[in-house]
Design goal:
The chain is of the alpha/beta class and 231 residues long. It has a single domain, classed as TIM Barrel (Alpha-Beta Barrel). It is 39% helix and 22% strand. The chain is built from eight helices and 13 strands. Strand 5, helix 4 and strand 6 form a beta-alpha-beta unit. Helix 1 packs parallel to helix 2, helix 5 packs parallel to helix 6 and helix 7 runs parallel beside helix 8. The model has no long low-confidence stretch (mean pLDDT 92).
Length: 231
């Protein structure tokens, strides 16, 4: 079954609804020094969300939008995610960080975002794949969100080449919603697909809230496309 990863949750109730809608991975931004303040989740709320996710067998992703290695390790120890996602805002994971994370936070896997701007993304992904556990391909680079959250798609042919070039799971992000996720699955054949912008309401104050009917449709369409291919 293809993994459906839904970002960026901010409260407990919408997290439960998102899991009910079919999400296999849920991602959020624990309170930290980087990222959009409206998206940062207090650590006690992270605890409630992650506890419920783990009870259900849903993987928890902690999104890092800062460049402070010590802070990232502290957060990983504190909230105990299944996956730590380095979003690449002035920092990308190296082997030393991967080794430290795996030593100090046993059981926490590492995901590195790869900006798919041209074919050089393939070489970057291959390099990261030597020491990270997941690759997340994404579109756009912003000061406050790192790689991603642009709502824009990119050239899926590059993603397909990355999938065939690395031996670790690849999750495709970047402008995916219910209307195009099936086409992405058919072209790329990834381990997973990710959605943020196209399955969210965004308010003028910067707060985002999941559009649950769209999450349901996104998950359904991804599953149906995967079932047709059965790769």
């Amino acid at each position: 079954m293809i993994k459906k990863q839904i970002y960026s949750l901010v409260n407990y109730n919408e997290s439960v609804q998102t899991m009910d809608a079919g999400a296999d991975h849920i991602g959020l931004v624990p309170m930290q020094s980087g990222g959009v303040p409206a998206h940062r989740v207090p650590l006690d709320v992270v605890d409630r969300i992650f506890d419920e996710a783990k009870r259900r067998g849903v993987k928890c992703v902690a999104i890092m939008l800062n460049k402070d290695v010590d802070e990232m390790i502290f957060i990983a120890k504190r909230v105990k995610p299944d996956i730590l996602h380095i979003a690449g805002m002035e920092y990308t994971a190296d082997k030393a960080f991967a080794d430290r994370l795996h030593k100090e936070c046993p059981g926490v896997e590492l995901m590195q975002a790869v900006l798919v701007d041209d074919r050089s993304a393939v070489d970057r992904a291959k390099k990261y794949a030597e020491y990270v556990d997941y690759i997340l391909t994404d579109s756009g680079l912003a000061a406050d969100t790192g790689i991603g959250a642009s709502g824009q798609t990119h050239d899926w042919a590059i993603d397909a080449e990355i999938v065939s070039s690395v031996d670790i799971p690849v999750i495709v992000a970047g402008g995916l919603g219910a209307e195009n996720v099936a086409a992405c699955v058919r072209e790329v054949k990834p381990f997973g697909v990710d959605s943020l912008t196209k399955t969210s309401f965004k308010y003028e104050d910067g707060v985002m809230e999941k559009d649950i009917p769209k999450v349901i449709e996104f998950c359904k369409n991804a599953d149906e496309a995967y079932s047709e291919l059965n790769y």
